[in-house]
Design a protein that fits this description.
Blueprint (H helix, E strand, L loop, with lengths): L5 E4 L3 E6 L2 E6 L4 E5 L1 H9 L4 E2 H12 L3 H17 L3 E4 L1
Antiparallel strand pairs: 1-5, 1-6, 2-3, 3-4
Pfam families: PqqD (PF05402)
InterPro entries: PQQD, PqqD_sf
Protein name: PqqD family protein
Length: 91
Amino acid sequence: MNLTQYYRWNENVEAIEMEGQWVILHAEHNTVTKLNETGGFIWSLLQKGQDVNLIVDTVTEKFGVNRLQAQTDVEAFLSQLEQVDVIVSDD
């Protein structure tokens, strides 16, 4: 994954935060995706769009984790969100 790749919410999703978790409804696919606290934190960064590098830096700082581990985890998480079509990439 390119660290300068820019991701944002898909226009066809609605998301709400409930008790520390995010619930994402994809209107076109009629699917619901739930995110835990860490996933929700990353999700909130994607609302207006962010590049992977900034997300990794922010996760590293917020959670005090090794940057390489944060990068691996963020890339895997973004890939999962992209597979269920709740985020899109702006090339």
